[in-house]
Amino acid sequence: MNAVPVLAAVVSVAGAVVTVVLGAVFERRRTRAQRRAQLRHLASRYSVPLLQAAHSLRGRLGNTVPEQIKEFREGSDRFRDYARHETLYRMAHYLCIVQIMWREVDFLDLGRRKHNRELIKRLVAVGSAIGNREFGPFLVLGGEQRAIGDLMVDPDSPKDAPPQCLTYPQFRDRLREDTHFANWFKPLLDDIDAVITSATIPPRLAHVTAALDELIQFLDKRKIGLPWAEAPAVS
Q1: Number of independent structural domains in the chain
Q2: What is the pTM of this model?
Q3: pLDDT in tens, 201-222
């Protein structure tokens, strides 16, 4: 039996096998690289708005001190209106971003299990601080948080892009024009009014602020996403 044709056949088969294996390896690597790129894009698309909303809300609650409340209480109607509705909007905007994340991201899968667990842990901590019945005014129960988040999603968001939250002017218009919409915010707005007319700061604010601080630190450990992080809190 001539060994040359047999050897040639073996080499040919081996070459084909190697080609298939290398092709599978390269395809797997390409798929992984593509997946990592998608996850980086996904993380940026959701974590940046979340960071901004958390920082904005934290800045407002952190500035809720007796001196500022007195200024709002004794100031012009413009100041009181600003204190009421802009504070309400910051809370609602944060809840909207969180609700969009729950709806749009499959179990908040940003590609790293440990990272996902830590993020969920911190989101839950903020939600728990907002919804704990023992902390007094500014209470928004868990179901109310999700409902407000849903209501704050702009129904006219582009279909080929992530959902967007209502802007502040849109929010004010909806409060004036839509009774059903406004009713969901009335308990929280009543609490804000009570704080403005009282010298007592609800203990909830300290708990929510502390939870937001942990979330912000987790999202931006090196403080590169918020260049204004060292600036005084937003008023």
Answers
A1: 1
A2: 0.76
A3: 889 999 999 999 999 999 888 7
